[in-house]
Amino acid sequence: MAAYIQTVMETRRYARVLARLRSVGLRPTRQRLALARLLFDGGNRHVTAEQLHSEALEANIRVSLATIYNTLHQFTRAGLLREVVVDHGRAYFDTNTKEHHHFLFEDSGRLQDIPSKGVTVTGLPAAPSGTTVSRIEVIIRLREHGSSQ
Amino acid sequence: MAAYIQTVMETRRYARVLARLRSVGLRPTRQRLALARLLFDGGNRHVTAEQLHSEALEANIRVSLATIYNTLHQFTRAGLLREVVVDHGRAYFDTNTKEHHHFLFEDSGRLQDIPSKGVTVTGLPAAPSGTTVSRIEVIIRLREHGSSQ
DNA sequence: TCAATAGTTTAGAACAATTCCAAACTACTT
DNA sequence: AAGTAGTTTGGAATTGTTCTAAACTATTGA
Ligand SMILES: [Mn+2]
Ligand SMILES: [Mn+2]
Ligand SMILES: [Zn+2]
Ligand SMILES: [Zn+2]
Question: Could you list the residue range(s) of the whole structural domain that residue B52 is in?
Fold first, then answer.
């Protein structure tokens, strides 16, 4: 019956992901379902295309890298992901789409969320005329001090 | 005598750039002198490698793209420039090395300085233990509203 | 249930930005 | 003037990403 419960939970998760894809008008294909689960089952994450691709292969999900890119962009357009730019050369996709900021561990390149709640930026000049603020991004770059300087 | 004054000013600028390179231990080569003047004579700027390369060619300075990259990185390491990351795919180099933030015009990709003076970020959690804040970056993404949405 | 259709996936080519390489060159020292 | 270490360069290589066109598949509605 442990196995039975397992199956029920499985089915639930599956249904949730399926509904999510449907709700944004994307066909629930094998690849998208699998990727959605890697991305959204579990806590918030910051992934690169390559990372997600490796994870998929490790989990025995056959997906091409082109599909990874397609999917990440479609999910982003659909508001399921957001892109974070902290490093030229690599695009990070963030499963946390709520307004929030980031710690960046410079050495490892790892990102960590800072809840927006409480954080305020004051003293900013008004947006230049003819423009609207689409987002304020705060990135706190951290140097790890210890072994390797 | 207008020509004479011109020459004096030229000499001054040259001397300044030369001293600047010497002070950071970089040999004042033809290429570095020319690039330093494109970068530092005049107001603060945000340039990409390609942009600087075109400017150099337009000004009849023969420099390879490899040298542009070498120089930009050497200047950055020497603290004469700083790198700003706002767009994956392209590296921007900023001649303003003082602490400051940026407006980013999303459509054009153009950056505009926001003096740090006055701007405060409050409510941030402490830096994770074992780390030090190396820089706080605030980027305000702007959408230009008008002709093209 | 079975086309027809529109949307999706894929391998591989193409692309853009950047880095690497090893040979030629040049600034500085002696 | 010669020696040395630092610099420049064209071109090849690498990296991350996008494009392409052909094969495949989910959806629809007859
Ligand atoms: Mn992108
Ligand atoms: Mn760089
Ligand atoms: Zn995040
Ligand atoms: Zn700036």
Answer: 1-95
